[in-house]
Amino acid sequence: MSIAVYTPFWYNLFKRMKTYSLHPESIRNLFNNIAHTYDFLNHLLSMRRDLYWRKMAVQELRGLDGWILDIATGTGDMALEIIQQNGHRRKVLGLDFSEPMVRKAQQKVMKKGLLRVIDLSLGDALFLPFRDHTFDASMMAFGLRNIVKKEQALSEIVRVVRPGAKVVILEFTFPQKGLMKRFYPIYFKKILPWVGGCISRDRGAYDYLPESVLHFRHAVEYEELMKKSGLGNVFSRQLTGGVASIISGIKKN
């Protein structure tokens, strides 16, 4: 007589956990694997603050019209926010290297009837398929930390925007003071990977997230890279106690 043993679904999930590294193909696989739960988990794990962060980042484009390049567009939330804030005089080209993410973005754009103002494409941030001085501004939300050759990516971004154009980076950072400095690392390194892993069934992806941020903890590190890439008037702004930061600069003439 045999006895059936119940095994919780998370046992096999963690036992055969995928692992990811800061390597282009590994990162592509990561986003391919979590595309189906990406939006839900972004909202859940950030307590919907990610919506506010994107809104604040896009406000950095206040007064800027024309073509906006959205690199690492993911499922298109940043592209949609750009149009929502000023849809009459802007068009967006969203670029991402994960096909499942781009497909989800296309579904959203079609549902909202914005195919005339948002164009989406597969592409590599290290080799942007555009001529020099093409765009009036560029944005990247939560993407730069995943790129090994950050200097090359920023140089490409600067190359394809016109002189005087604004480049805006939105990234996770670590709080540097107050209660957030004390408690946020516990949430970010322990609770977030567990919840994200259970829901997405890919614990490795959400273990990777804290590791990716640890390489660049503070906005000042991104500021230095942006200055070296040819941007002036570089400054940063903390959001939600330093959990995320907006870093922006202007392409020099």
What are the SSEs and their pairings?
Elements: H1 9-15, H2 24-34, H3 38-45, H4 49-58, E1 66-71, H5 77-85, E2 90-96, H6 99-111, E3 118-122, E4 135-141, H7 150-160, E5 161-172, H8 178-200, H9 203-214, H10 219-228, E6 231-239, E7 244-251
Parallel strand pairs: 1-2, 1-4, 2-3, 4-5
Antiparallel strand pairs: 5-7, 6-7
Helix pairs in contact: 4-5, 8-9
Tell me what the structure shows.
The chain is an alpha/beta fold. The protein has one domain: 3-Layer(aba) Sandwich (Rossmann fold). It is 45% helix and 21% strand. The chain is built from 10 helices and 7 strands. The chain has helices spanning 9-15, 24-34, 38-45, 49-58, 77-85, 99-111, 150-160, 178-200, 203-214, 219-228, and strands spanning 66-71, 90-96, 118-122, 135-141, 161-172, 231-239, 244-251. Strands 3-2-1-4-5-7-6 form a 7-stranded mixed beta sheet, sandwiched between helices. Helix 5 links the parallel strand 1 and strand 2 (90-96). Helix 4 (49-58) crosses helix 5 (77-85) and helix 8 (178-200) packs antiparallel against helix 9. The longest helix has 23 residues, at 178-200. It is globular. Residues 1-17 have low confidence and may be disordered.
How would you concisely characterize the structure shown here?
With 253 residues, this protein is of the alpha/beta class. 45% of the residues lie in helices and 21% in strands.
